Amino acid sequence: MPMLGLSTYAYAWRRHPDASTPWSLLQVVDDAERLGVRLVQICDAPELENADPHALRCLRRATESRGMLLETGTKGVEPDHLRRHLVHALDLGATFVRSMLSSPRGVPTLPQAIAALGEVMPDFERNGVTLGLETYEQFSTAELIGVVEAVGSSHLGICLDPGNSVARLERPADVIAATAPHVVNLHIKDFAFSRSEAMIGFRFAGAPLGQGLLDYEAMVGVLASAGRHVNEIIEHWLPRQSTIAGTCELERQWVDDSVAYLRSRPVPVDA
CA-CA distance, 73 to 96, in Å (whole number)? Predict the structure, then answer.
């Protein structure tokens, strides 16, 4: 049964340097435990980029002692970079790594991405770890699917986040339908447009889950029809409020409400 999870992106403000006391990864795990959520996805976290293997193994023990699991996330597809994160995943006991084709280090061409992934995926396969490439505006959905299909690995798929592709003028429903056969992980965040000041332009930002444009029921229905029953990871695009303390408190409310919302669905994911 798919698991409900919390991403470190759902704690972006409480982990932000401007917070009075930025949260550690262990505090995120503690909060997930408070909510009865048994999965945490550590995504694009500084603690992973220059990780101390001993610290990772300590975090794994602390997480497993609570009956919880971890997933990880990074950016980029360079073989050496992905191999390093594969080691981090193994240290943490994670069987899923999320990445993106592009990274702060550069944007590969499609042939470069295919070649890099073709080189590294046998390592993931041997270790039983799945790699999910996230939908993002830097590449079209068709291009991302083309990369996954060209590599042809049983442990390579798509991490679906339909809100990200709006910046490429791709409709979320179209992204969901196209990627469904390849989805191996699902990011859950809601989003909405609002008019900017003086009605000049729009702002596209996060919304409380269930109150924006994400049609959650339709999305999971499409995935189920494609035989994809995957972990669902809560994230947020919470805009900064007038104070960091107020932003952190609203973030707490969004996390709590998102967990409650997903548990209230007709076919809830496993907590």
Answer: 8
Closest alpha carbon to 8 in 86, 70, 85, 91: 70
pLDDT tens track for 241-263 = 999 999 999 999 999 999 999 99
How far apart, in Å, are the Cα atoms of 211 and each of 8, 100, 181, 241? Answer: 22, 28, 27, 18
Please give the model's pTM, rounded to 2 decimal places. Answer: 0.95
Cα gap 234→212, rounded to integer Å = 15
Q: Which two tokens stand for residue 66?
A: 């609570």
The continuous run of DSSP H or E covering 255 comes out as helix 244-263
Q: What is the pLDDT of residue 78?
A: 98
Beta-sheet strands, E only, within the chain: 4-7, 39-43, 69-73, 96-99, 130-134, 156-160, 183-188, 190-195, 202-207, 232-234
Handedness of CA 87, 269, 248, 204 (dihedral sign): positive
Pair 125, 155: CB distance under 8 Å? yes
Task: Return the residue matching tokens 């990445």.
Answer: 99
Torsion of CA 7, 13, 16, 22, to 10 degrees: -90
Q: Which residues pair with 202 in a beta bridge?
A: 195
| pLDDT, tens only, 97-156 | 999 999 999 999 999 999 999 999 999 999 999 999 999 999 999 999 999 999 999 999
Q: How far is CA 82 from CA 4, 75, 113, 124, 162, in A?
A: 25, 9, 12, 9, 24
Helix (H, G, I), strand (E, B) or coil at 43: strand
| End-to-end Cα distance, the chain | 10
> If DSSP codes are grouped into helix, strand and coil, which group holds residue 35?
coil
Q: Is the Cβ–Cβ distance between 39 and 70 less than 8 Å?
A: yes
